[in-house]
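Memo subject: From amino acid sequence to discrete backbone structure tokens
Keywords: amino acid chain, backbone geometry, structure tokens, three-dimensional fold.
Body of memo: The sequence and its backbone structure tokens, given next.
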Amino acid sequence: MLVKLLKPIGMLVSYIHYKVDRLRLAKLIQSGLNVGKNVYIMEDVEFDRGYPYLIEIGDNCRIAKGVRILTHDATTFRDLGINRIAPVRILEGCFIGERVIILPGVTIGPRALIAAGSVVNRDIGEDRAAAGNPARPYGSFSELLDRYRDAATAATIFKKDEIENGTITREHIRMTLEGKKVAFTRGVPRKDPYYVNADFAEMRDAAIRAYEALLQHQAMKQTQEQSAQGEQKT
């Protein structure tokens, strides 16, 4: 009974938190925070409120929950009477994982990945995957995508719209993952409140093209494997 009573209260608190977070983000954009098209910004992302106009986020970036982006450094203030300020640029197609801290003067990307919990204190170049404190590149984003392409060949891929309408249940997903390391989902949700400057039709078209390319990759790989097996038999 208590759980039933508390559930609507919890939903109301979550909704209020979401609305406050979105209003704060809208105010920062009005104050000069530069956000491109189809950018995904989760809750509790902390942009430097003193200098939001020094932050640039390119098209098609994803910023996970709890990321902190700083454009000022007060280390020198007590001894020199000055603060350092420097811009932060997150270029097109970057993915910034949860709880990442990005320090002043950093440029990331384009198409770079920063792993969750990293502290970025220097530039991370195009197509780099970086992690750690301080963040250091450990490979390329393209290589990571290649590994996922191969993994998807043998994995189950769920449709998002079938998850949303209940055709695929949570229990079905759990059962599918029993004994397996990973599954995937595909498609763009009907609506997602964390997108900024979103064109959902454009994103759906891009997602369809990307999935078609994945299917072509899978077909090519299957052909190559069959060819290799045929050569071994002969």
Observations:
- The longest strand covers residues 136-140.
- The radius of gyration is 22 Å.
- Residues 147-226 form one domain.
- The first helix runs from residue 2 to 30.
